């Protein structure tokens, strides 16, 4: 049973765009974000509409940055954290492209890159958009508590990123290439705390990363960076410990999007989370570094906690998932 795919016709990243809310735009990578907002309502009357508008903007600008027309995009692959992924679906209805709506919680963006790369590598399509989004205010009432309740956040909690990111990958063009991908499996260590996403996701991240090393015959030193999606401070520490137990020291290469996106302080606790977290960081900071050849090879692995408000209320544990793509400049 093999989970790693090596692409023969290596898909090229020909365009990218990111958009983020005020809190994210003031963070440590804010200067790399293409569109920054002063108001997380984005001129809309609901948070859900604002999220969908952010995703629409990220897709449209990514297509423009790829110097493509909308009718040249064969498919849009996108997902978010809302019921029936309405942020993605409502954004996609504004484009003429085929649409694949996907969901893997905060691992959704890496999943979209994996599926898009397979479509390009198999020569089924020529240009594909891969996207994901999240919004703090829509996610909080989706997974935890009504905003009006004003609940105190525990120290193990992360802050859901308000933002969206889109990548255009093509069969031809210039830019970083996606050379391989390792598809994750569901891993459940029995964590039941809906606020402790890092602990729930770290075992899945370790499983995917170690599987990738073994199946690709690579080691941590083969990568400039090993980037996780949103494990946060605690989850990142758990991942390093689990990898060390299996004989892999990732201390020098590992960075986490959740730790990068904010100027970490008490209000964010463990850092950022949400499907938009890794999508924003990848399509801003990481893409800039890849284009400048300051990063030559990265393992980008978004992580997701596969829970719902119903499963949490029923006392179920939280399964995790992680998908990894290798990008080379």
List the quaternary state of the chains.
Answer: single chain
Number of domains: 2
Strand elements, count: 14
CATH architecture group name of the largest domain: 3-Layer(aba) Sandwich
* Beta-strand proportion: 15-25%
Number of continuous helical runs: 10
How much is the average pLDDT?
A: 92
Could you name the CATH topology of the largest domain? Peroxisomal Thiolase, Chain A, domain 1
Can you put this structure into words, describing what you see?
- The chain is α/β, with parallel strands linked by helices and 329 residues long.
- The protein folds into two domains: 4-170, Stage V sporulation protein AD (Peroxisomal Thiolase, Chain A, domain 1, 3-Layer(aba) Sandwich), CATH 3.40.47; 177-328, Peroxisomal Thiolase, Chain A, domain 1 (3-Layer(aba) Sandwich).
- The chain has ten helices and 14 strands.
- It has helices at 22-25, 47-65, 86-92, 108-121, 136-143, 197-216, 232-245, 257-260, 275-291, 309-313; strands at 4-6, 12-20, 35-36, 75-79, 98-101, 127-134, 159-160, 163-170, 177-182, 225-228, 254-256, 272-273, 297-305, 320-328.
- It has a six-stranded mixed β-sheet with strand order 1-9-14-13-10-11, with helices on both faces. A six-stranded mixed β-sheet has the order 3-2-8-6-4-5, sandwiched between helices.
- Strand 2, helix 1 (22-25) and strand 3 form a beta-alpha-beta unit.
- Helix 2 (47-65) crosses helix 3.
- The longest helix has 20 residues, at 197-216.
- The chain is globular, with a radius of gyration of 18 Å.
- The chain starts with a strand and ends with a strand.
